[in-house]
Amino acid sequence: MSDYLPIEIQVEIMKKLPVKSLIQSRSVSKAWKSLIDNSDFIAHYSGQQQHLLVSYHDDFDRKYVSVVDADAFPRHKVPLTVPVPVDMLKHSRIIGSSHGLLCLYSDYGETAVVWNISIRKAVAVNVPNVGDYYQYGAVLGFGVCGETNDPKIVKITPIDMDSTSSLPWQIDVFTLSIGAWRRPYSTNLPRKSLNFDCSLLGVVVDGAFCWLATDRITMDGERRSINLIISFDLTSEEFTEINLPDDLAHLECLHLSMSKLRESLVLIQGYLCNDHVFHVWMMEDGVPKLFTKMFTICIPGAVVLGVLEFRKSGEPIIEILDSSCDPYEDDSSLVVYEPCSKHITHLGISGMCSFFLSCYIGSCLGISGMCSFSSYSYKETLLLLDHPDLTTYDI
Fold this sequence. Notes:
single chain; mainly beta; five-stranded antiparallel β-sheet; five-stranded mixed β-sheet; 6 helices; 27 strands; 43% strand
């Protein structure tokens, strides 16, 4: 092909190839390897194929399966072998996903791992001064800057209220291109009255990482909490508040989680103890407070444990348990729910009431921890190809 086609046409053809074919093509010739390994090609490559990553417990072992999100869904399943840095993380969970990269963090360690499933490469990042993740309320987020394609990890740590510091938070940003932590470009910080729930996962929408938060206010002489969204722009590194409509702003935070449908922010309203009904809300055209209820999920004869993810078609992937089963003895199942017909399709995967799905977008709202962590969807990417595998970035 290289003898007959101009290099510009070769590049355009290669941009449409799946990652597996590109990796194989690097062995064909030095010219092709140089082209594919070029930082500009890596930055501008975006695979067409979308995948779902399913992680679940089977006989107390964590298993990973990649499912191709295409017409034959869910028939094309591939078991994954996780890289060493991911395998070494104990009790890990996803803190974010962007541009086909996944970032995991262990609540019992001080290391985050950025993982490109498509090229089987991972790098580890030591996280500074986290201490007890829950006790001190530090929250982490991850995303890729749309302008530079530079992966970033942001850490928000509350300043001790008894300290003399005039700042409510300490913000640290890690950028993979320089391999170091630093302060953010912007000096505008979240207000001191805000509280981040570190057990809830955020999502990247429109180039910004978003967290659910609550604002502690006094109303009619009573202390109340108002839900809102805090976003962190991955380019300017500025924080912004997004207000929610009253129906969602005044819910107990345990009844609310966040996800993403295609490129739109989605909120999932669910109830943990009673009817197991979940309502899906989507923000319209990026306008704060303008959320529309898309549909309600309720399955007769089954307990809905959580809304884990959305397929690229818009159908939610949920975890259910037959209502006649014992949640502590029987396995739960993953299904796709069709909102119009209310029909469900089983994915053929069962686990110990502890799923964690990733099409690399969104988060999971479950019953008392029966449902695992989060879910995301991803497209194939070459990001990290030009980084040494298994690299650890020290503080």
